[in-house]
Design a protein that fits this description.
The chain is an all-alpha fold. The chain has one domain: Chorismate mutase (Chorismate Mutase Domain, subunit A, Up-down Bundle), CATH 1.20.59. Helix 1 packs across helix 3 and helix 2 runs antiparallel to helix 3. The longest helix is centred in the N-terminal third of the chain and has 32 residues. It is elongated, with a radius of gyration of 18 Å. The N and C termini lie far apart (55 Å). The protein binds ligand ISJ. It is an enzyme of class 5 (isomerase). Keywords: Isomerase. Its EC number is 5.4.99.5.
C-alpha cells in the first residue's frame, strides 16, 4: 500500500517538519485560514433559514449528497483522502443543519420569517 495521500510530506505545498512545534505552527496557520471560511459558510446557511418555507425543508437529502460528492471531488484534486473528507463534510453539514434550524426557529419566533 502506498503512502496515505494527505500525510505525504512531498505533496505540493506541504512543508516537511522536523519538530512538533513546526507541525503545530502549520496547523495553527491553516486553522486561521479555515475558521473564517467556515464562519462565512455558516452565514450562508443562516440565510437559507430565511428562504425556506417550512422547518422540514431545512434537511435536503439530495443537496447533502451533492455537497458531499463535490467535497470528494475537491479532495481528489488536492490528492487528499476522499473518505476522510467525506466524514468531515457530513459532520459539517449535520452541524450546519442544527445551525439552520436554530435560525429558522429564531426568525419565526420573531415573526420576521414567512
Ligand atoms: C444550506 C442548505 O440547507 C442544509 C445544509 C446544507 C449544507 O450545509 O450544505 C445542505 C443541505 C441542507 O440540508 C441547503 O438546502 O442548501
Amino acid at each position: 500500500m502506498s503512502t496515505i495521500p494527505t500525510t505525504d510530506p512531498r505533496r505540493a505545498g506541504m512543508r516537511p517538519c522536523q519538530s512538533m512545534d513546526e507541525v503545530r505552527a502549520e496547523i495553527d496557520r491553516l486553522d486561521a485560514l479555515l475558521v473564517p471560511l467556515v464562519v462565512e459558510r455558516l452565514g450562508y446557511v443562516a440565510q437559507a433559514a430565511g428562504l425556506k418555507p417550512t422547518r422540514d425543508a431545512v434537511v435536503v437529502p439530495w443537496r447533502i449528497e451533492d455537497v458531499v460528492a463535490k467535497a470528494r471531488l475537491h479532495a481528489r484534486h488536492a490528492q487528499g483522502d476522499e473518505d476522510t473528507i467525506e466524514r468531515i463534510w457530513r459532520a459539517l453539514v449535520d452541524i450546519s443543519i442544527d445551525w439552520e434550524r436554530a435560525h429558522f426557529d429564531r426568525l419565526r419566533l420573531r415573526g420576521t420569517g414567512s
